[in-house]
Amino acid sequence: MKRNKAVDVKRSKKVSGISMYFFILRSFVEMVLATIIMLTGISWGSYYVENRLLEEKFGSGILEQEMWPSEVYKTIDYIDRITWTIVGVVFILIVLFFARRIKRHIFIPLEALNKGISDFTLTGKEVEIPTTRLKELDEITWNFINMTERLRDSNRKREAAEEERRRIFAGISHDLRTPITVIKGYSAAINDGLVTNGDAARYIKAIEAKAESLSELINMLYEYSRLEHPSFAPNLKDSDICEFVREYLAAKYEELDIAGCELVVNIPDKQIICSFDAYQMQRVFDNIVNNSVKHNERGVKIYVRINEGEEDIIITVRDSGKGIPQNIGETVFEPMVTGSEYRPGDEGSGLGLSIARMIVKAHGGDIKLLPSSETSGAIFKIIIPKLQG
Fold first, then answer.
1. Looking at residue 341, what is its pLDDT?
2. Could you give all domains of the chain from N- to C-terminal order, each with its CATH number?
3. Mean pLDDT in residue range 342-362
4. With contact defined as beta carbons under 8 Å apart, do 148 and 1 qualify?
5. Are 173 and 214 in contact (CB under 8 A)?
């Protein structure tokens, strides 16, 4: 939006200037005063000219005579006609002057604003907005500027969302193609009798693994779509987050032990109450912990710690694995960020961390990837508002 210096101010600043109603009233009063002054001036001027002309033409004593010749009346009538002609011309000029001023301050800006709105409606391009000293018109101008900026921001967000959806579906299509191709190829080989009895079990196991991968991918996509919907809201209940994390890790312990992972826990031995959806929070921890298991060698250590702040609860989940390069930053939480984009050789849906962020955001919190070196592993910090009162 192009703006001149008159509107290049903070949006929160109150619009200055005089009221349009006061401007019109002031213009009317000024026009009346100008007309009175004009009539007074011309009347005195006409009286003075008339007396001087009569004295020069008929003598200095003509004004004291009781009876005037007809020529005197003709002269007076001629001067009166000239006087009223001048009065009419000057009055028209006064009216035109104030009409032009009102047009310049009200009608021309309104026409320009109307044209700008029409141009923006038709093309969506930037338009130049005029400004005046009138408060009401400047408020209309600011409202239009704010509206167009909000519309552009909304369009940018919509385009970004559409681009993200296209990227997600392109990635999902690519991820679906590989297991489907394997399943079709292996099943066709078995069906055509090209697989010996000794290899059949291996082929069936590969088909089962690819089918499981497809199921996981579809479930992730469904979960992501459900969380992205505006109507989604977590089922919040006031509960002890420390006890929840302890129970989750206890249930997860055997699985981590089989995967060769060591669990190190530092949780306060007290209650810390906050509002959270236990099912959704379990998804958050599953996605983070499973990533640590999937993307690291056996023997990796997973550290879980809870700290209580004045207003927030901070849950830190760290592993001793390969870590995540810092140039990735927030992109690890974007959909379909996987494989060579941050850890070579990764496989998966690329939606896990994105789903985790959406769930935490729905709880009014935040999740961050903390700075770490290549040897200190990935460090995630989950921030959840603490129940006050």
1. 44
2. 20-133 (no CATH), 237-385 (3.30.565.10)
3. 71
4. yes
5. no
